[in-house]
Amino acid sequence: MDRGLRHTKRIKELDTDAAVDRGIGAESAGGVMLDYNRIWIFGYNRFIGKCNIFEVELWDILTGMITLLNNSFNKVVIHIDYLEVVQVL
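Structure (tokenized):
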């Protein structure tokens, strides 16, 4: 097997998605971990409480990273959809 292909197969993808309910302060974060073929490995979610969307997006990434580390994944591509967070990171 080609060394580059083996390396690619070890890389996982973290797709994050945060949600803010401005009415009751029920912010939450969640995402999915995918393999190199974008096949679902597992999902996660977390209730965060009252905060702004920027903070929720950061909590989402942190929760995803902790979940990944706890499951021994160390090569990850993170997909997020909030430009301000991307610029800060």
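Helices lie at 3-10, 53-70, 83-88. Residues 3-80 form a domain with the Nucleotidyltransferase; domain 5 fold (CATH 3.30.420.10).
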